[in-house]
Amino acid sequence: MSAPSIVVAGLGRCGMSCVMQMLHSVGIPCAGDWPDFEPEEMNLGRSDFRDFGGQAIKVLDPQKRPGLQFAPQSQVILMTRNATIQAQSHVRFLQQSFPGAFNSVGTQDRLVRSLERDIGLATRECMRSVGVRNVRCLWFEDMIREPLGFAGALVKFLGLPKGWEDTMSKVVIKRTPGLNPTFLEFDQLASLDNFPSPAHIPFSNKDLG
What we know:
The chain is of the alpha/beta class.
């Protein structure tokens, strides 16, 4: 039987990559590469993640993956964010690739409604897959306002060693809610020469549960 996974799920632009970086910082095996942790095999056509036992995995849009399956006893961190700010972040991200597009008020309003609907669907799909007790909904706003408290909530939910929250919290740039002036992902990709190595903390699959 596969070891359980730590699943970081959400709708995009909600801090999933940052949570993966927090887990990576304490030596937890993570599928994919820093900073985004998005290997090709995690594409939207996949619903069966049982082969990723013993790792942290990032799963975008779980509501679009019918029959979602994870390794037994996996735990899901479902990231949520203020839908209006999240929609603004989506639009700005798209405009990086398509300048001048997606800038109408109507487009953003439709995206807000879609996000509000889909987070409920994503929650239900995750709970159906692993059970209500193995899903924890956490807020992006809490992560950036109080990184240490957020990291403590992760440690408690995942049953990780006490004290790891100190290292994990240092990954987060503490700030107020709202749009960041730049895309942190792009800044990080531009600085891959300074790739951060995980902390030298003994880790085994037993720490996943």
